[in-house]
Amino acid sequence: MLLVVAWLTAAVLLWRARVPGTLGHPRLAPAAYFPRSELTRAARYSSGARLLYLLGVAAELVVLLLLSARRRRLARAFALGEIGSGVLLGVAASLLVALTTLPAGVAGLWWDRRYGLSKESYPSLLLGQAGGLLSQIVTVTIVLVIVMLLARRFPRGWWALVAPLLVLVGAVFVLVGALLAPLGSEPVRSRPVAAALRRLERREGVAGIRVRVDKVSAQTREVNGETTGLGPTTVVILSDTLFRSGLSDRAIEFVSAHELGHAARRHVWKGLAWALLFTLPLTYLLARVTRRFGGLQRAEVVPLALLGSFLLSLLALPLQNAVSRHYESEADWMALQATRDPAAGREAFRSFTRIDLTEPEPPLWSYLALDDHPTVMQRLAMTRAWEARNAPRAAPSRAGSGSPRATTTSTRSPPSHPRARA
């Protein structure tokens, strides 16, 4: 009971945000902000993307179910001891999942290319998949060795040691990613935007933070930004497509203010804290389930553990997405407070549909289960709500920038490690 109280207390403290609790969001109609052709195109693209994602999930589930059904025979076939056989089962599962989900990945690239979102070639996709698979195999090997050794030594309490260890590994990935971010990127070349960034950094209390422009326009037309890193390694990364998309400097500055808001509110740190809060009960449940089959120190239980981890992660995904949407809303609010320019925010948010083909009002099931950002319409509504509270002090609108039908980036899937994106 004490652990439950501690968990709930930590969750309440982490949930705190600067968005006013009494903020009223007006109900907005997508047709008032987007032409019918854009809404139709975004809906068709998003429906196909969701279907391909679900097919990939189904393929992975089938592979893990089959491996679990044949787990004893497979464990005997390897005959390399419990840990050796368990690691090989984990590697085999990674290979089979990669091969089985590859068609969905290729179809996903075809779908993106069809709608002009991606310029990536199919050989490049396969090369990237191979590199990702190699990294996954190394990670799976290390994690399984550690987990199985701990499960052997602490049959009932290994989960309490593994949970923080997994989060620590995630933190290492964040740090490495932030340190490698400058490679292939460049400083902000636009003088007006660079000057605005310095002002925004001071306003949001993150003066001196690194801001880099990532060269992705050769692979995609999508506009995006993200914040990653911890402490002095924190870096804001803007895609160069932002500067090639026809967005005004004011909209790009709003996107930048959103990312600086993530840094100011320490969302990456909080993301790691939430990761620990979610990982603790998930590993506990996994330990309880695997113990019924002899414990995770046995090789034949590894496929069951992989299946259980996959199912538990799917069940936890809506809650994780809710946390992510909450922090994204806070970053939007921080951007509005820093720029005092709701019209620029509307231009940026509308670009998600105009350029990235994000459906402005997706089906409720998709929003709850898959979306880690507020909907475009929710974000537009926040600009209106902010305007209603602060209209006399808002920045003057330029001609056309605040009128219905004008365009930052919304990611369609959760990140693999804690980071904050536009």
List the helices and strands and how they pair.
Blueprint (H helix, E strand, L loop, with lengths): L1 H14 L20 H34 L1 H8 L2 H34 L7 H32 L4 H23 L4 E2 L4 H14 L5 E5 L10 E4 L6 E5 L9 H16 L2 H25 L10 H38 L2 H13 L9 H6 L6 H15 L29 E2 L1
Parallel strand pairs: 2-4
Antiparallel strand pairs: 1-2, 3-4, 3-5
Describe this structure in words.
The chain is mainly α. 64% of the residues lie in helices and 4% in strands. The chain has 13 helices and 5 strands. It has helices spanning 2-15, 36-69, 71-78, 81-114, 122-153, 158-180, 191-204, 249-264, 267-291, 302-339, 342-354, 364-369, 376-390; strands at residues 185-186, 210-214, 225-228, 235-239, 420-421. The chain has a 5-stranded mixed beta sheet. Helix 7 (191-204) packs parallel to helix 8. The protein is globular. The relative contact order is 0.14. The model is unreliable at 397-419 (pLDDT under 50).
Labels describing this entry:
422 residues; mainly alpha; 5-stranded mixed beta sheet; 13 helices; 64% helix; globular
Question: What is the alpha-carbon Rg in Å?
Answer: 23 Å
Distance between the termini: 38 Å
Which residues form runs of ≥5 with pLDDT under 50? 397-419
Q: Write out the strand line-up for the largest beta sheet, numbering strands in chain order.
A: 1-2-4-3-5
List how many beta strands DSSP finds: 5
H/E series: HHHHHHEHEEEHHHHHHE
Major β-sheet profile? 5 strands, mixed
Helix-strand category? mainly alpha
Q: Report the helical percentage.
A: 55-70%
What is the oligomer described by this structure? Answer: single chain
What global shape is seen?
globular
Average pLDDT over all residues:
91
Q: What fraction of residues sit in β-strands? A: under 5%
**DSSP summary: helix tally:** 13
